[in-house]
Amino acid sequence: MNTTVNNGGDDLAQNRLLSYLQDQLPFKVEEIKPIRKKVYLLRTQERAFILKGFSSYHRLKLQEAFTSSLMNEGFEKTYIFYEVAKEPPLFFDRTYFGCMEYIPPSEDVFTYYLKTNRLEGLELLKKFHDTTEKLVSRYQTVVPAYRQADKWRERATLFLNNLPVVRYFVQKEIINELLAWADWSLKGMEEEALLFQSGRQVILHGDVAHHNFLRAKDQSLYLLDFDLVAIGTPHSDYLQYANRILPFMKWSIDDLGKYPILKSYLGERGFLHALAFPTDIFREWNRVIRDRTYLDPVKIRPVLDLTVGQFAERQRFIKALKNAASEKSK
């Protein structure tokens, strides 16, 4: 049996979890391997599972129901949950655990660095929205409404509170411009508020980071982790997707327009304003300051590259957004 842990002294906790699982599961666990916090790979003689922890029973049951609904509506490129415990739910160390299908990964990892992957991810996200549009009425009482502008105001406020630390690393001229971009973005979104409040409603994924797309061994692409689902217009997921891929495209609005799914959104003034919000920069600074890792050279380097290293490219991008938004106003 392999219970080796490489995550900083959690051997005892993991052995306790293993002992609990051996008592609760109808099969013998041959290996337990941590993937990230409260997520484990379990191997038995017959198969493998993913064990994932949730903070509440409600969250666990919502995820089980939602992934089942996706499958029933024809969206098969995700995982399913299994009922495997003798007395569900699994509850250990104040955490509810669900047992999920393990999808064997390909050696070809999904990455936003490749244009073919970026296009494929967009297509899968569109299929997800087409499916979840049918599920909105079913989940509107248990899935929150997504408030794009409110979320970004909160993120900007936290960034402002963190400025004493940020100023230690970033010159004031860059900080002032970041804040100006955020102000222009939020004001434009307020003027075009209906864009994010009316029209087509879907269940948003909420976290379209590259690691939530999985290239399976058969080369199919899967969408994972629905912890942040919310109801809103598709704009919000596409905004986040655009923000994730733009660093790999040298922040080119022209190249962004070459993606058919995004091209139509670039014709909307509110979407252009929203693209200007430096949400990734604010998010990463807020994270390293919250985790107190800003003095770690390895942790701070990518944040500085995002903030300073890409600044000139991003400055040109914002100028292009403003020109495009101005044209839409005429």
From TrEMBL:
Keywords: Transferase. The keyword Cytoplasm does not apply. InterPro entries: Aminoglycoside_PTrfase (IPR002575), Kinase-like_dom_sf (IPR011009). It comes from the Bacteria. One of its GO terms (molecular function) is transferase activity. It comes from Sporosarcina globispora. This is Aminoglycoside phosphotransferase. Residues 123-241 form the Aminoglycoside phosphotransferase domain.
